[in-house]
Amino acid sequence: MKQENVSDNEALLQEIVRNTEMGKNALAQLMPYAQDREFRARLLKQQKEYRRLNQKAHTALAACGAQSRGQGVMAKTMAKAGIKGRTMMDHSTGALAQMLTEGSNQGVMDVVKARNAYPQASTGAKEMADELLRFQEASAEMYKAYL
User: Fold this and answer.
1) What percentage of the chain has pLDDT greater than the value 70?
2) For residue 14, which of 98, 134, 118 has the smallest C-alpha distance?
3) Hey, which of 1, 38, 61, 132 would disulfide with 117, CB 3.0 to 4.6 Å?
4) Within 31-92, where are the H helices?
5) What are phi and psi of 4, to 5 degrees?
6) What's the whole-number mean pLDDT along residues 35-53?
7) Cα angle 99-47-127, degrees, rounded to a multiple of 5
């Protein structure tokens, strides 16, 4: 996970950008399938929070003089194809909630790995990672109600 010639601070912020992009892109792709009004409203709220955290990480990277790289093309394509394949078989609220629970849990693991891999990151970057972690843990719990 450690990147050559990149500070722990920048690397952790890049992971936050990548992670939040993945979340907001997945929600955007699943939104058209959300038929339940309450569930859809929750997805919109989640998407708004991913956007806020993403912008916060972009701003922090810019303050460090770094350019955000975000989610790679291959990762975007694979995620999109995976969602498309799973929604073709079942796009019920329960199926969407399951995908989102799995995605949130994966996001949690990715943030924890990054947090551990970059121990020299600034307090601000660590706090941002912790904020994302809490958000994703709460998201996974919220989605469970729809399983």
Assistant:
1) 96
2) 118
3) 1
4) 37-63, 73-89
5) -65, 140
6) 97
7) 100
